[in-house]
């Protein structure tokens, strides 16, 4: 059955909806449901408040960033009341922990959510879990609530992404049971990201489908990175590689790093799948060192001293994304560059007002949009090196 099927019956399931997490993805989910006339509450997990999201608010603030920047007066309600009254609760929090702390952070927020749910509620988990991760979530929820999933409450697995290169028309949604609530969920998700032609399947199948989708995309990218590291040019690779991979930036490469790490942590042993996943992660994480090494070559070729150079990382990061993989990778890049250059800062390409100083300027463009903005706003009276954060680390001298 297709998501937009008009034969779907809303029935008893058409109660209030709660989205737990003031993230970019959470706001998109809440907005898509609220504009269709449903009562939606968006929970800011850090401030412990539930925002009543109405169509007029969505029209005025198309993104969570614009909402947070303006800080308008909003109608609020107690978090516990909002969750208790909800028919559906989407779990879409911002995750900023790394390593072994990720699971603990997610478990803590899931505990905060489920302590107020009531019988009949459906929980929709939108973060990736790897293989078998939902079994742990279900066990935790049943332990904390005393409810049986599939009988008293319902659980769905819907790993979402905001990145178009990962969109697929056959995205699967995992369900803990088959019921009429499944049909309503499909209708509720109409026009939500990645769900245009969704199908309800068992949770384990949905986990495997997401892992395959991630690996199909990122193993190819990691292979490209590793091969391009072998270029021997002194910072200026061949035109063939520039033409082929010039528009593949670190912003796109790092989109699924969180997903890959979750998959890696869910695997046991040292089989081929573990080698494939871990190798892909190392390829992406190792790119930062490769970029720094290439920058050294560029400065050496241009006979510029690191002490007389400043670096501007042009990367328009979304600080409200559900997953913090890009923010973490930027921090790694900033730290490594500071060890070598010292004078390093980040600015979006659209805010690149560069004025002459006594230092040489290197701008590292980390996405297509940032590079396009740099090309439009750069000071043509200022000599600087523009470096694309792509597999070949293409460098250009602006004169």
Describe this entry's structure for a reader:
Strand 13 (384-388) and strand 14 (395-398) form a beta hairpin. It contains 15 helices and 14 strands. The protein is an alpha/beta fold and 399 residues long. Strands 4-3-2-1-5-6-7-8-9 form a nine-stranded mixed β-sheet, sandwiched between helices. A five-stranded mixed β-sheet has the order 11-10-12-13-14. It starts with 16 loop residues before the first strand and ends with a strand. It has two domains: 11-201, Rossmann fold (3-Layer(aba) Sandwich); 229-398, Rossmann fold (3-Layer(aba) Sandwich), CATH 3.40.50. Helix 8 (203-228) crosses helix 12 and helix 11 (257-266) runs antiparallel to helix 12. It has helices at 24-34, 55-60, 64-70, 79-85, 101-114, 133-145, 180-188, 203-228, 239-245, 250-253, 257-266, 272-285, 287-301, 325-340, 368-377, and strands at 17-20, 40-44, 49-53, 76-77, 88-91, 122-125, 154-157, 172-175, 199-202, 309-314, 343-347, 360-365, 384-388, 395-398.
The residue fraction in helices comes out at 40-55%
What is the CATH topology of the largest domain?
Answer: Rossmann fold
CATH architecture of the largest domain: 3-Layer(aba) Sandwich
Q: Note the gap between the termini.
A: 58 Å
Residue windows where pLDDT falls under 50 for at least 5 positions:
1-12, 164-169
> What is the number of beta strands?
14
CATH class of the largest domain: Alpha Beta
């Amino acid at each position: 059955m297709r998501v937009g099927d008009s034969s779907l019956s809303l029935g008893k399931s058409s109660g209030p909806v709660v989205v737990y997490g003031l993230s970019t993805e959470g706001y998109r989910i809440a907005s898509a449901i609220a504009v269709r006339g449903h009562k939606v509450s968006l929970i800011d997990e850090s401030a412990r408040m539930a925002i009543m999201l109405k169509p007029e608010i969505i029209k005025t603030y198309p993104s969570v960033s614009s909402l947070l920047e303006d800080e308008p007066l909003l109608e609020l309600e107690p978090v516990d009341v909002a969750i208790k009254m909800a028919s559906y609760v989407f779990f879409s929090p911002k995750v900023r922990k790394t390593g072994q702390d990720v699971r603990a952070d997610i478990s803590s927020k899931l505990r905060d959510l489920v302590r107020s749910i009531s019988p009949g509620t459906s929980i929709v988990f939108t973060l990736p879990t790897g293989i078998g991760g939902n079994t742990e979530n279900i066990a935790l929820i049943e332990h904390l609530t005393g409810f049986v999933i599939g009988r008293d409450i319902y659980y769905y697995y819907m790993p979402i992404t905001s990145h178009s290169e990962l969109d697929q028309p056959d995205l699967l949604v995992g369900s803990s049971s088959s019921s009429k609530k499944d049909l309503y969920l499909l209708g509720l998700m109409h026009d939500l990201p990645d769900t245009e032609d969704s199908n309800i399947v068992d949770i384990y199948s949905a986990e495997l489908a997401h892992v395959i989708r991630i690996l199909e995309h990122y193993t190819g990218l990691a292979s490209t990175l590793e091969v391009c590291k072998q270029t021997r040019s002194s910072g200026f690779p061949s035109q063939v590689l520039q033409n082929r991979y010039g528009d593949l930036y670190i912003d796109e490469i790092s989109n699924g790093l969180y997903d890959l790490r979750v998959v890696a942590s869910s695997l046991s042993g040292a089989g081929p799948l573990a080698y494939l996943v871990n190798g892909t992660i190392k390829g992406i994480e190792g790119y930062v060192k490769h970029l720094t090494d290439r920058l050294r070559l560029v400065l050496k070729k241009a006979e510029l001293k690191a002490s007389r150079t400043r670096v501007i990382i042009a990367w328009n990061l979304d600080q409200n994304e559900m997953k913090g993989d890009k923010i973490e990778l930027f921090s790694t890049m900033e730290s490594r560059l500071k060890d070598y250059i010292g004078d390093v800062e980040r600015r979006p390409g659209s805010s690149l007002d560069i004025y002459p100083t006594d230092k040489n300027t290197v701008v590292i463009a980390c996405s297509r949009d940032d590079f396009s903005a740099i090309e439009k706003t750069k000071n043509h009276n200022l000599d600087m090196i523009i470096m694309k954060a792509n597999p070949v680390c293409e460098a250009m001298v602006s004169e």
